[in-house]
Design a protein that fits this description.
406 residues; alpha/beta; Aspartate Aminotransferase, domain 1; Aspartate Aminotransferase, domain 2; four-stranded mixed sheet; binds pyridoxal-5'-phosphate
């Protein structure tokens, strides 16, 4: 007999629940960064990708309201069918200038941008080589376009090179996150650029977590690494993280942007972002460009968290970015820590499989310029309390048998 799809999904869901891996949707009833209200309690949140604290900035809000008064809310159509408004065009120009690329093209979300690029450029018979820990949208994009997907061990440029060499005659895209979203560590960008050149592969970098945060004027990870459009012809980044709004863009040469305009179905067949959102993003972009003080404050918080964690024997993964994961290993432990932190007034979500590999559950601590050094100190004290509570003899033994952090 034919399986019922909804029953089958429900069975999978029960398996997830039994493995303590169920995802739960919760509603935030109020927020004033970095604070949120959840289930009637005010919590200090370390969960937001609003790294510069721009999502609620007065100038960004004002730009949104002013543009909504002028343009209304919805764009009403896809970019190619009358939805492309002056604020979109202005934002694309500013993004291209900021990232040092000839042109930029907006997408509704980062997920769509990655699907769009891979779908536009790759075809069956091509090869797409990706870091194992790349964002889900890059991996899904490779599946969508039908190219052969090869995943190399995390941040291993040598392995990437060997995988490209296996298919020397296939057209090839080498794609990597610049900052890995669940680990906070960095891709070996210069090595990837060099090997892409050697192997005649096209390099695509997803800088969702680097734009606004890294590089001079916040221009991102490629700027920080001194890599031009020649080294990394395809730059993708999102607007929903450090810029605090929503959407994404791809930047590169005119030839790339023209091709995406023609062939990226996620661009062609999707409604343009609200023009007011583009105007708000432009205001956020200007603030990010002038955000050296915000970035310096953020760097100081990162240093404070890392030094404090070391002093307290807490195991943070190696990361220099605002993403500072605390390694816990088992999903149950991570869940227990997240719940205990919440009882102490903090929101720090547990990240469990399948978002991260089996046995690598963690708390993902995300810092923002909206935090104070007092906020970080309070979090450190709470983590140290949990560390002591959980260091019962049994736990200590269990911890020794866990695999080490990658
Ligand atoms: C968040 C993220 C995306 C997806 O962007 P959205 O705009 O949220 O859809 C893509 N890539 C990376 C690395 C991300 O962190």
């Amino acid at each position: 007999m034919r399986a019922d799809l909804i029953e089958r999904a429900a069975a999978r869901q029960r398996e997830r629940a039994e493995a303590a891996l169920l995802r739960r949707l919760r509603t935030v009833r109020d927020s004033a960064a970095p604070w949120i209200v959840l289930d009637g309690r005010r919590l200090l949140s370390f969960a937001s990708n609003d790294y510069l604290g721009l999502a609620a900035h007065p100038q960004v809000r004002e730009a949104l309201c002013a543009a909504a008064a002028r343009w209304g809310v919805g764009a009403g159509a896809a970019h190619l069918l009358g939805g492309h408004r002056a604020p979109h065009a202005e934002l694309e120009l500013a993004l291209a200038e900021w990232t040092g690329r000839e042109r930029a093209l907006l997408f509704a979300t980062g997920y769509m941008a990655n699907l769009g690029v891979l779908d536009a450029l790759l075809a069956p018979g091509d090869v797409c080589v990706q870091d194992k820990l790349n964002h889900a949208s890059l991996l899904d994009g490779a599946r969508l376009c039908g190219a052969e997907l090869r995943r190399y061990p995390h941040a291993d440029a040598g392995a990437a090179s060997r995988q490209l060499a296996l298919r020397p005659h296939a057209a090839a895209l080498l794609a990597s996150d610049a900052v890995f979203s669940m680990d906070g560590d960095l891709a070996p960008l210069a090595d990837l650029a060099a090997l892409a050149q050697q192997q005649r592969a096209t390099l695509m970098i997803d800088d969702a977590h680097g734009l606004g945060v890294r590089g001079a004027r916040g221009a991102g990870s490629l700027a920080q690494a001194g890599l031009s459009a020649r080294d990394a012809p395809i730059l993708m980044a999102t607007l929903g993280k450090a810029l605090g709004t929503l959407g994404a863009f791809v930047a590169g040469d005119a030839a790339l942007i023209e091709a995406l305009t023609q062939f990226a179905r996620a661009h062609v067949y999707s409604t343009a972002l609200p023009p007011a959102l583009a105007a708000a993003t432009l205001a956020a972009l200007r603030l990010a460009q002038q955000g050296d003080e915000l970035r310096a404050h953020l760097r100081a918080l990162i240093a404070q968290l890392r030094a404090g964690a070391t002093a307290r024997g807490l195991r943070l993964l190696l990361s220099t970015t605002p993403i500072q994961p605390l390694w816990l290993g088992s999903a149950t432990t991570a869940q227990a820590w997240a719940a205990a932190l919440e009882a102490l007034g903090f929101y720090v979500p547990a990240i469990r499989p399948p978002t991260v590999p089996q046995g690598q559950a963690r708390l993902r601590i995300a810092l923002s310029a909206a935090h104070t050094s007092g906020d970080v100190e309070r979090l450190l004290d709470a983590l140290a309390t949990l560390q002591q509570q959980h260091a019962t003899p049994m736990n200590r033994r269990a911890r020794l048998t866990h695999p080490s952090p990658p």
